[in-house]
Amino acid sequence: MSRRPIPADCLQPVPAEELAVRSADGTRLHIEVHGQPGAPTVVLAHGWTCTTHFWAPVIHRLADRYRVVVYDQRGHGRSEIPSSRARYSTRALAEDLAAVLTRVVPEGERAVLAGHSMGGMTVMAGSARPEVAERTAAAVLISTGPSDLLAEVRIVPDAVRPPGLRRFLHRQVLRSRLPLGPVGPVSRAGLKYAIMGADAPAERTEVAVRMAHACPTGVRANWARVLDRLDVRPGLARLAAPTAVVVGAEDRLTPPVHAHRMVAALADPQGLLLLPGVGHMAPLERPAEVAAEIDRMATAHLPARRAAADSADSVATTGTDLPAATVDPERTAVA
């Protein structure tokens, strides 16, 4: 079966620097640094079955004005596969994030953290750790949830009504150890239904499908067990940094109900961005909007970025009338 072309913005740029760090249990993590040395830092954490390549469209849109750091979650991409099932946990995710931030964000400095799906859960799980809290200027939680994932997943058709049966079927699908096999029409169609919006371009679906197929079967299943019993609500409540939430209106894995619950629980909510027609893979489906939201949070909460933006605005508006304020119809502002 021939492979479909990959959009140019989904091709991973060559990193300016590649690093490795050991987490608390010794697991080696692969880190890439993109963009501008000395610029404000943004750290991106990917989700289940993905790699640093997932963030390529967002990196391309941020690298001209940020130092963009991405890393492979344990078991994914070029990071080490854990030696035992016990090393798959939300605690491990938090320890990994702490190790990465300690390596890439000098003491006394801060970054904007953005996490997609399991990456968002990582941000929540690690929020109270000093290495994380002291280095976090703001956060963006994208297509994620803090708990009760199987209760809200919408992959099984609505015709299957009993909640217990729906939970059982979802668990069997997500925790399966069956290999996905070669990429083909059936896997493309099935994965697109589960993780992408109905109108997602075939080329962007291809990126997600290839990553899912490349994820080792055991890694996929072991992380699915963690997600099955996930509860990072305590970490969500302790997330003190200003935090924005992004979700696709057609997200079947972490539907918008999770986004609304997170906004209600956050200490400093900075808005809920709902993307119509978008599924679970928002940074692939609508990278411009996701990158803009990260940029918005960085401009507001990273002093170096805010100063640069204020300077640019001053030059741009000198001697001109300011435009009338507009309201983004896709954003739900949260007071």
3D architecture notes:
This protein has 335 residues and is an alpha/beta fold. It has helices at 56-62, 90-104, 118-126, 130-133, 149-152, 163-174, 185-195, 202-214, 217-228, 233-238, 256-265, 282-285, 287-301, 303-317, and strands at 17-22, 28-35, 41-45, 67-71, 111-116, 136-142, 243-248, 269-275, 331-332. A nine-stranded mixed beta sheet has the order 1-2-4-3-5-6-7-8-9, sandwiched between helices. Helix 2 (90-104) packs across helix 3 (118-126) and helix 7 (185-195) packs across helix 8 (202-214). Residues 314-335 have low confidence and may be disordered.
Question: What's the layout of helices and strands?
Answer:
Layout: E1 17-22, E2 28-35, E3 41-45, H1 56-62, E4 67-71, H2 90-104, E5 111-116, H3 118-126, H4 130-133, E6 136-142, H5 149-152, H6 163-174, H7 185-195, H8 202-214, H9 217-228, H10 233-238, E7 243-248, H11 256-265, E8 269-275, H12 282-285, H13 287-301, H14 303-317, E9 331-332
Parallel strand pairs: 3-4, 3-5, 5-6, 6-7, 7-8
Antiparallel strand pairs: 1-2, 2-4, 8-9
Helix pairs in contact: 1-13, 2-3, 7-8, 13-14
